[in-house]
Amino acid sequence: MDYATNIPLFGEVELGREIYYQIGFQSCFKQDTKYDTCGNEFWIAFQSLGDQFDSILTLYILNPSSSSISVLIESENSTLPCSPIIVAPKSFGSCAVDTSFLTTFSSCKAIHVSSPFQCIYIQRQHYTSQNFSVIPILPVDTLTQSYHVLSSVLDTEIIIVSLNTTSVDITPSGGSLFTIATERFETYSYQSASNFSSVISDNVVAIFQKDTLANGYGLQQLHGDLSAGKTFVIPFATGSTDTWKCLTLKDFTTIKYGSLSTTPLAGNIRFGSVTSFMELVSTEPVLCHVYSGFTSVPLYHYEQWSSSYSFILKHNEISYKLLISITSADKDLLVLDINGSQTTITGTWISVTKVTGSSSDFVSLEVPIDLTGITNDVLATLSHPSANFQVFLLSTHLTSNKKTLSLVPGFKSVQSNVDSCKETLGYIGDLIDNDCDGVADEDVLKSSNANYGDFKGIQQANACFEKIRVDDCDVSPGPKFENSVQQRIIENGCVNGDINDPFRPSSDFIYDSTKSDNVTQIYSSGKVKLVGFDGYDELYLRCNVHFCFKYDRSCDTSCTKRRKRDITSSNPVSDQLITLSDLQKLTASDESCFESSAFISVISVIAIVFAALLCIIMYFLVRLYQLTGNRRKQLHVSS
């Protein structure tokens, strides 16, 4: 972090600059943003475009926190599609991706987006004179190695984005398995006319899909098999002719919708027309999509609904509606915030068509969004103070009247593992139903020694990490920290080394209340003058961090007071550039000082010993004189 501006530093940084180190973490396992599409690292596919001269591709970065964040956007050839973006608190930034970036080669392209600490949302918009699509991008920690891609009535293009070197097995339904190998930043595009394709990789990958006739319009990112679920509410827009489709993953899975039910074998597709908001329930987890125009939208099951969603709205050419589903008892507290102006959601709610025998009480509403007077793209947030709900965004292009159904950032993107019922002592954040009560991970504090259990029938918020201790920190000229010249700057939570050591921060890592909020806790070190190792171009920092719960006092570091040398002495570390050779010179100088001091000490000891001997000799001389005098007196008396 730059010491003067408090802005994260990306790329090459000149030596001699004053910086400080910063460590951030999300203190709670179950924050509203912890398991949804909020994250710190993203991979985004940008397919080749036939109408690139008519396309506007925009990345929107949404910052839900109360502090500014810096976001880095990278591509394979180190050419940044955008400069690093600074996003203000509770606001958004944008990156207009140059479409020439996508025409250098005919293959797909990938972009990597990262933020240092704070959780961000990313929304990708593709706009042309006739079409419009918008999708949320899933963070890396929600991606997986196993996917099933459901095709629509048209051929489907599957785009696989490789985060690292990996091998990927692709098996079309009714076809033969084939394997591809990919490298970091590499994408692989595959067209399929099969009902679905199975994709299994050695390492985590991101997968996008679109209909081949859509030419990029309607591109969507998929969630993996771990996001399969049992209860869905399928959205419905007036005048639309949409279709739903579900894929079973286990044999003898019964799927119920309305008064109908079916029990296909594993790997079978079931589909139907969407004529109203409708509930769909299965006895085992299934994957479901809804098809609207050229857009294939993955559905999130009931346990992945969230209490808050944020998204960007264009101020012209597009009209919007929200398709909302929520339990009847909670419908009156929904609030839509557009640029700080809040409106309570009202309207004529309709009951969702229930599955026969279902006790659910879902209601739905189709809500138009009024953007009258809005002259810029705006940030909108739909939220409820306590209840989870589902929302889809229906966009209509005012020129072509084409409609796009899309998700918005906020859906929880990981599996809750309710089906992984294990009668074992769990831990906070394990996402396992450890007491088999049908609710995953409602772990609560069991005792004051920070032992957590998942108690049957008890459902309350998880406890949070209260603090951290930065145990040990090393700086090194290489990423493997195996170089003999690496330096330890923090040890056992305390600043390490002499005060003149150039890598040493001016103070320990301490909690920074000015940059922390209710989601992210920030710890900052004291000021450091950025120095380099002699003969190396890079500098790496590695720290071991200890997390503490409420009753754990092991994070209470007490650094003993060290005797510090006078920094105003004749040999201070000043504003000059310090390198490793300078460090060695300082060390040699210190050794010279030590040798000089030792010499003076030896001379002093010798002088003291000499003085003592002199005193002893004088004592004996005096005594000898006294004895001689007494002897003379005795002789005189005798005579």
Question: Please, could you describe this protein's structure?
Answer:
Pfam families: Zona_pellucida. The protein has 639 residues and is mostly beta strands. Among the domains are: 29-140, Jelly Rolls (Sandwich), CATH 2.60.120; 473-549, no CATH class. It is 9% helix and 37% strand. Strands 11, 12, 13, 14, 15, 16 and 17 form a seven-stranded antiparallel beta sheet that branches. Strand 13 and strand 14 (178-182) form a beta hairpin. It starts with 17 loop residues before the first strand and ends with a helix. 36% of the residues are buried. Residues 29-35, 414-419, 441-463 and 562-598 have low confidence and may be disordered.
Strand content: 35-45%
Q: What is the gyration radius calculated from CA atoms?
A: 34 Å
The helicity comes to under 10%
Q: What value does the average pLDDT take?
A: 75
Largest sheet: 7 strands, antiparallel
The counted number of beta strands is 42
Poorly predicted regions: 29-35, 414-419, 441-463, 562-598
What is the highest CATH level, the class of one domain?
Mainly Beta
